[in-house]
Task: inverse folding
């Protein structure tokens, strides 16, 4: 993020100079962050000095599998040790620190706020980068404004964060590292909370969030080490109709290339799209009816990715492979064996004795080869890609989804039992779009989806 010059107009749009507007607030926040950090370091250093043997034991408890950990993991360990791990004889490290009689008022005030910062799970509802967050407690629905110059630059709306909110005036701040989860991982985290609640003998009744909240205190180490099961599943790739992705190719020799051109120029099943990428010949895209293809897709495994491509003027068709007519040779490339078989049947039917099959090949897909990656769909950039994604989402509104018991998103919006799952889907889409835009990718603003489904006034708590 480029730094704003002191005398430049303030980015907030107030028409005042930056130094007379937001810079003052940012400098105040930075000073508070430095004061908190300084006090936190004093507590950390004192804890290490006083309870070094206990910290070594805590290391074994927190990271039994490794004696070498990264900086972030060590910060997680130290924060847990100071705030949560009870020492022999009772009390945590920060509580022992606050029992000292030699603390000055400012150190005691910050120490008390650190002691009050309990681990909890929150959704990010709003972000002002470089300044603040608005967090929503996943269990209670309570909304908490939090100032943070660093975390506010790292997260976006609907991220789920495991963190410690430290009370403060005029606003709360954050103590220790923050763990960030995707919106769709929230369900997995809640399942882990319920499992730990059972193990601790606590209530897991959704109407009684106190029981689940206690898990954050009693099982904080396990929660800080929790990895959503979906992250452990290797992504697998499929076509739009659910076939496993491979690299499939066939080559024919033609007796009459001109007759073959006429046979292949048959929209909408076959679309002439100009010259091939390598300039060797005329390119035709084989397409299929989008609705019929998606209706054949079976349930996919966790972390599954599926690919589809479409073309201007034919939003209801999906590209399923590419023919290249190069002189007396015809080539076909696709990303599934099923699509290749369809192309072989089509050539046999349309070209008959005009085409002699020379070669047919099906091999594993190599995502590291640019030529094979291009087969996943048309190369689109900037405005074209943004427009394609928006068209895709508009079609998505009226497609039956397995996660919605076969209902379309539009229909699910009016079915009370399906609305929570639909809202989770929308949060995930909006979150992914925001992360993609921050990374420089072409993604449209999809806030209109909430309006289209009339969900703007009843976001899930």
Result:
């Amino acid at each position: 993020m480029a730094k704003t010059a002191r005398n430049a107009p303030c980015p907030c749009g107030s028409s005042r100079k930056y130094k007379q507007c937001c810079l003052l607030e940012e400098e105040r926040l930075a000073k508070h962050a430095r004061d908190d950090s300084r006090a936190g370091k004093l507590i950390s250093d004192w804890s290490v000095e006083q309870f070094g043997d206990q910290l070594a034991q805590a290391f074994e408890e927190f990271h039994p599998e490794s004696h070498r950990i990264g900086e972030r993991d060590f910060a997680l360990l130290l924060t847990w040790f100071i705030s949560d791990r009870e020492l022999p004889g009772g009390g945590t490290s920060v509580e022992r620190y606050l029992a000292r009689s030699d603390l000055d008022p400012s150190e005691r005030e910050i120490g008390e706020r650190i002691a009050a910062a309990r681990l909890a799970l929150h959704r990010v509802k709003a972000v002002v980068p470089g300044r603040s967050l608005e967090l929503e407690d996943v269990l209670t629905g309570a909304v908490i404004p939090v100032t943070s110059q660093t975390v506010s630059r790292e997260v976006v709306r609907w991220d789920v964060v495991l963190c410690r909110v430290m009370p403060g005036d005029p606003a709360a701040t954050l103590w220790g590292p923050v763990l960030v989860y995707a919106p769709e991982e929230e369900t997995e985290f809640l399942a882990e909370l319920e499992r730990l609640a059972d193990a601790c003998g606590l209530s897991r009744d959704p109407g009684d969030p106190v029981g689940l909240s206690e898990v954050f205190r009693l099982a904080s180490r396990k929660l800080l080490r929790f990895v959503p099961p979906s992250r452990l599943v290797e992504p697998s790739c499929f076509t739009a109709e659910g076939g496993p992705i491979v690299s499939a190719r066939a080559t024919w020799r033609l007796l009459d290339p001109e007759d073959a051109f006429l046979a292949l120029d048959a929209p909408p099943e076959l679309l002439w799209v100009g010259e091939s990428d390598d300039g060797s010949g005329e390119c035709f895209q084989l397409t299929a009816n989008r609705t019929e293809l998606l209706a054949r897709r079976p349930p996919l495994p966790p972390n599954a990715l599926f690919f589809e491509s479409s073309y201007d003027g034919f939003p209801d068709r999906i590209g399923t492979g590419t023919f290249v007519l190069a002189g007396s040779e015809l080539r076909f490339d696709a990303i599934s064996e099923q699509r290749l078989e369809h192309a072989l049947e089509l050539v046999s039917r349309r070209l008959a004795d005009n085409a002699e099959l020379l070669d047919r090949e099906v091999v594993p897909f190599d995502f590291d080869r640019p030529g094979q990656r291009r087969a996943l769909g048309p190369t689109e950039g900037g405005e074209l890609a943004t427009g394609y994604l928006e068209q895709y989402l508009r079609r998505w509104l009226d497609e039956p989804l397995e996660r919605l018991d076969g209902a379309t998103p539009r229909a699910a919006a009016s079915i009370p039992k399906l609305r929570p799952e639909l809202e989770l889907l929308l949060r995930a889409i909006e979150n992914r779009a925001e992360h993609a835009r921050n990374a420089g990718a072409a993604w449209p603003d999809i806030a209109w989806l909430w309006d289209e489904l009339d969900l703007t006034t009843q976001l899930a708590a």
Observations:
- The chain has 17 helices and 14 strands.
